[in-house]
Amino acid sequence: MHIEEALRDYLKKYPGLAALVGDRVYRDHLPEQSVYPAVSFFAVSSPRHHQVDIAWPRYQFDCWGKSPGETAAVAEQIRHALQRYKGVMEGVPVIQGVFENEIDLGRDPDEPVYHRTVDIKIIYEGG
User: Fold this and answer.
1) Is there a smaller number of Cβ atoms within 10 Å at the N or the C end of the chain?
2) Half-sphere exposure (Cβ direction) of 53: Cα atoms closer than 13 Å
3) How far is 9 from 59, CA to CA, in rounded Å?
4) Pairing of strands 25-27, 38-45
5) Burial of 81 (0-12, 13-18, 19+ CB in 10 A)
6) What's the pTM value of the predicted model, to 2 decimals?
7) Are the CB atoms for 117 and 108 separated by under 8 Å?
8) How far apart are the C-alpha atoms of 1 and 62, rounded to whole Å?
9) pLDDT per residue over 52-104, tens digit each?
């Protein structure tokens, strides 16, 4: 399984996050007419080691909600799910999840939705 599929499937099953967003975890972007709260994510960078089969991409997880508190709660569950994670994630051996950054982007000027981002680096084998 590819790391992005593993991330999506793992996050959909993570109890704290699933309680907030259900299965609304999407790669790249939200679908039109989305239901909130929801999460979308994409790779910001995808470095790989040239001699060893290890990669450490950095992902931006976009947390969307109808209030600042809702987006903060979703962001907190992303951190809990991935920060310091070690183990096999949906078949992908993860060495460590590393929290990088979090930014509150406030209300989207075009829609009544709030946006917070969480950046996490996932160090894994098999890149």
Assistant:
1) N
2) 6
3) 15
4) parallel
5) buried
6) 0.92
7) no
8) 23
9) 789 999 999 999 999 999 999 999 999 999 999 999 999 999 999 999 999 99
